[in-house]
Amino acid sequence: MPLRACLPPSLSTMKCFSYLVFSLMSLTCMAGEVRSGSILTPGSVWPDTDGRAINAHGGGIVFHEGVYYWYGEFKEGRTFLPKVNKTWGGTRVLAGGVSVYSSKDLVTWKNEGLALPSLPENPDHDLAPENVIERPKVIYNARTKKFVMWFHQDSPNYQAARSGVAVSDTPVGPFKYLGAFRPNAGVRPLNASASDLAPAPGNLLARDLEGGQMARDMTLFVDEDGTAYQFYSSESNQTMHVSQLTEDYLRPAGKYARIFVGRSIEAPAVFKHKGRYYLIGSGCTGWDPNPAHSAVADSIFGPWKELGNPCRGEGAEITFGSQSTFVLPVAGKPGVFIALFDRWNKWDLADSRYIWLPLFIDANGHPIVTWRDRWSLNELE
Ligand code: GAL
């Protein structure tokens, strides 16, 4: 198919040019087995091996048996502003489900289809396109040999604030949907005081103790001992919870802590380096960018110490016009990470872009992400 034939008509000339350049680069690179010289250009259109723009937003990556799998929100079609979200500017596309791409080199991505499709024929289902399917993360359970997906499942007005779970025998799915719920119903946090738990106007933790805690933006993290955790923005996004999962990774284990209390941090991405836990996140301004947050902890349940905005260089004060989604430890290169961000296009969400940049821990133990127009995976030594 000629390259132009697969371009959406709305793409500008500029975009067409970068699309063409990258399509040619990817075709050239596909010839070689090892593409360690391949260049990443944050913010341009990234084509898959079919020449189509990669469609995997708010995503995360699993490395399994020599292959990287990139899962993300499949965003297609018209962006609209539902009446129910008008006050806060929450534009939407109908939820397409969760897409998955595979790669051996982090640059050449093959479309493996929808790991978890939305269900247009079933308007009452959690996975109906009118509902929200965001920030999917997949982890592999070595004990059960299953791939487990968690994501932010919500009602059209984002008030259900739940976590959805799905499971698959293979990385590309199809994943079997197990349902959505508010985590930790009936469970007290490890670190709540009596006054935290006392019902009072505005005390959302206490309000939701029985029915389960609100859960919007989220990520998963598997520790070296195989224990998995969900980090989710809770209590109307004001406070984050870190919640241990059961051994099969399918439910909360009933042990969780409140972290960043009242700090309104979302878009969490968690990783570990030299025995310490790190988190990159954002402030809560919807699709609009804001200064990133970073933090470190010796114990996953905290206390977490905030380290400020980890971004450096052009656009650092607004996270390069993007929002965190994941931090990928590069296989075979201890201490080397790639930070993944989404540059949302709030009036054309399907044309949102990816900002991937190297992340290093500096001599003071702070994570640092520096802007680069283009960079090579070769540089990650
Ligand atoms: C952001 C969030 C995104 C998406 C968006 C909706 O705050 O990080 O994942 O939910 O709001 O406007």
Q: TL;DR of this structure?
A:
This protein is 7% helix and 39% strand.
From the structure above, extract its key features.
381 residues, mainly beta, four-stranded antiparallel sheet, 23 strands, globular, binds beta-D-galactopyranose
Task: Provide a descriptive summary of the structure in words.
A hairpin with a 4-residue loop joins strand 6 and strand 7. Helices cover 7% and strands 39% of the residues. Residues 1-36 have low confidence and may be disordered. The strands form 6 sheets. The chain has a 5-stranded mixed beta sheet, with no helix packed on it. It has a 4-stranded antiparallel beta sheet with strand order 2-3-4-5, with no helix packed on it. With 381 residues, the protein is mainly β. It has helices spanning 13-30, 194-197, 204-207; strands at residues 39-40, 57-64, 67-75, 95-103, 110-117, 132-141, 146-154, 162-168, 176-181, 218-222, 228-234, 239-245, 252-259, 266-273, 276-282, 293-297, 304-306, 311-312, 323-329, 337-343, 353-361, 367-370, 375-376. The longest helix is centred in the N-terminal third of the chain and has 18 residues, at 13-30. Bound molecules: beta-D-galactopyranose. Beta-D-galactopyranose binds next to strand 6 and strand 14. Residues 58, 90, 134-135, 217, 266-267, 284, 286-287, 323 line the site of beta-D-galactopyranose.
